[in-house]
């Protein structure tokens, strides 16, 4: 969620800039988007290296082989827009990228034309055809260097129940976001269309259902922990599971509280930027 502060220094940095630029920078700050120093660092493709990784398959020997995932700001924005367009229904899409060591890189993402219901998303033949066409189109015009042209994550209780016997096979990755010079024009193009909605909306209102669901899920986890403690009267040394659940519930409560505080801080920043009139402005 947003990490924007409400200090006078932060607001002064945005003064004199276009509203669309302000909205984009606030979004980048809230998601801690890093600017990569060199495009070649991430977008250079080493065919031999990728083939060696696919042949070795180190993730089969170590289930926790991958440690980090870096997502392009463009891919992040497209995923968020797609998810929001689905409303309360589940959506389906694919991500494109590569693997480098213990890190996954997500360069792009795209939505699939699928039918969504209240319980599931059904992919039909049309979705598979679109998937194939999109991936092939993404390769057009690509020419590798010196080569010939060629063709902790918070998990709700209901999701834990869905995972079932496979729940122990899931683990969270360290997520970070990056932006390159190649993304800048695409982001500017997207923002010119949606910046008004960004500034006029409030995360406290748009995420009201999400926040309510987090609080409701947190209360269920606390009730389960309380019931577990009540059965034994206390948390004995051997009962690590109950203690771990309480620790996770504490982290979830902190996360929810921080998100709400960040929403309030973002509102204060926007109020300072657009509603506060200084004496010097009145004279002008």
From TrEMBL:
Domain MPN: 69-208
Pfam families named among the record's database cross-references: CSN5_C, JAB
One Gene Ontology term from the biological process aspect of the record: proteolysis
SMART domains: JAB_MPN (SM00232)
Gene Ontology CC: COP9 signalosome; cytoplasm
Compartment annotation: Cytoplasm; Nucleus
Keywords for this protein: Cytoplasm, Hydrolase, Metal-binding, Metalloprotease, Nucleus, Protease, Signalosome, Zinc
Gene Ontology MF: a single term: metallopeptidase activity
Membership in a protein family: Belongs to the peptidase M67A family. CSN5 subfamily.
Listed name of the protein: COP9 signalosome complex subunit 5
């Amino acid at each position: 969620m947003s990490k924007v502060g409400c200090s006078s220094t932060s607001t002064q940095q945005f003064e004199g800039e276009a509203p669309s630029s302000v909205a984009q920078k606030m979004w980048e700050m809230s998601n801690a988007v890093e600017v990569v120093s060199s495009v070649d660092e991430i977008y250079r493709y080493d065919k031999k290296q990728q083939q060696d990784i696919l042949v070795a398959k180190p993730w089969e020997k170590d289930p926790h082989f991958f440690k980090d995932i870096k997502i392009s700001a463009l891919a992040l924005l497209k995923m968020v827009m797609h998810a929001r367009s689905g409303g309360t229904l589940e959506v389906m899409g694919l991500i494109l990228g590569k693997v480098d060591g213990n890190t996954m890189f997500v360069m792009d993402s795209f939505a699939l034309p699928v039918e969504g219901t209240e319980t599931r998303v059904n992919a039909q033949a049309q979705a598979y055809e679109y998937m194939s066409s999109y991936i092939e189109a993404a390769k057009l015009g690509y020419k590798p260097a010196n080569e010939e042209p060629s063709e902790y994550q918070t998990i709700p209780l209901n999701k834990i129940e869905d995972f079932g016997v496979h729940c122990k096979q899931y683990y969270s990755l360290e997520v970070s976001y990056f932006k390159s010079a190649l993304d800048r024009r695409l982001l500017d193009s997207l923002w010119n269309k949606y910046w008004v909605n960004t500034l006029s909306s409030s995360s406290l209102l748009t995420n009201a259902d999400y926040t309510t669901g987090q609080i409701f899920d947190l209360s269920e986890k606390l009730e389960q922990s309380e019931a577990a403690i009540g059965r034994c009267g206390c948390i004995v040394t051997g009962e690590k599971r109950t203690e771990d659940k309480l620790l996770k519930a504490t982290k979830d409560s902190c996360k929810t509280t921080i998100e709400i505080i960040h929403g309030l801080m973002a509102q204060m920043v926007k109020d300072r930027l657009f509603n506060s009139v200084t004496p010097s402005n009145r004279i002008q």
